[in-house]
Design brief:
Layout lengths: L10 E9 L5 E5 L4 E8 L1 E6 L2 E5 L3 E5 L5 E6 L5 E8 L10 E3 L4 H19 L3 H21 L3 H15 L7 H8 L3 H12 L3 H19 L4 H7 L5 H12 L3 H4 L2
Helix pairs in contact: 1-2, 3-5, 6-8, 7-8
């Protein structure tokens, strides 16, 4: 990405919340503008070429103009997102799709743009958004650049997206090392340096966190949840919930 201040002013096309129907599938499509999607609730799956991402609340998906992509709203909870479309000349062809809004700034800026869009619709005038939206968009673009994964952190993001997209499948450390193109030893050393956990422990934690989400948001029994998150038995899942998260089904469903 080139520096925002070296490019023409960004212009907003639209910005508003989107309430996705359960299990909604958006077939392959692209736009002549950049599309930014912030996940507020639910679970959203995105595929761009061979890259698949599972987005949960707090995650951000950026599709630069002319990027062909496919999306699914998944799970039992309605997915709600903030969507923003805009034009800007500064994105390169290798701009990453996935980011995590670690500090809440992307959500803040997108909410401000959504409010401007709604004001335009009510006032039937774009005077205010023409004046204010470029300022907010510049701040938003700068935040996207700051959140762009680099080096080992990008590798960790790729691994976590890979695991989330195959949550119900058996996944070994060798599988993940092959996916990112490293030997098991080198991969494990890098992963631990970035996360403070071994790859296997992180995979187990992701499975248990997804199980916690399903327990809290659905009435599914534990023996149905366990295979959905790639854990062999409800007994094993119950032990992992207690050992990794310090909780159990009863506490989560109070």
């Amino acid at each position: 990405m080139k520096q925002p201040n070296s490019q023409p002013e960004p212009t907003m096309h639209y910005a508003f919340p989107v309430y996705h129907d359960l299990n909604k599938h958006y077939e392959l499509h692209s736009h002549d503008f950049h599309e930014l999607v912030f996940i507020q609730s639910g679970r959203f799956r995105s595929q761009v070429g061979m890259e698949e991402h599972i987005a949960v609340p707090g995650d951000v998906l950026l599709y630069v103009a002319d990027t062909t992509h496919e999306e699914w709203a998944e799970g039992s909870e309605q997915a709600i997102s903030l969507a923003c479309a805009f034009h800007w000349d500064g994105f390169g062809p290798d701009e990453p799709v996935f980011r995590r809004d670690a500090h809440g700034q992307v959500q803040r800026f997108m909410s401000e743009l959504s409010s401007l869009h709604i004001f335009d619709e009510i006032a039937r005038s774009k005077e205010r958004s023409t004046r204010e939206a470029p300022i907010i968009l510049r701040a938003l673009i700068a935040e996207l650049e700051r959140l762009k994964p680099h080096g080992p952190h990008a590798m960790v993001d790729r691994v976590r997206a890979y695991v989330r997209s195959r949550m119900a499948e058996p996944i070994s450390v060798e599988d993940v090392a092959d996916y990112v193109g490293f030997s098991r030893a080198h991969f494990s050393k890098m992963y631990h340096a970035v996360t403070g956990r071994t790859p296997w422990n992180d995979i187990q934690l992701m499975r248990v966190e997804e199980a916690r989400r399903l327990i809290a948001s659905t009435s599914l029994p534990l023996h149905d949840i366990a295979p959905k998150v790639g854990i062999a038995t409800e007994y094993h899942l119950s032990r992992l919930l207690r050992s990794l998260l310090g909780t159990g089904v009863r506490e989560l469903r109070k």
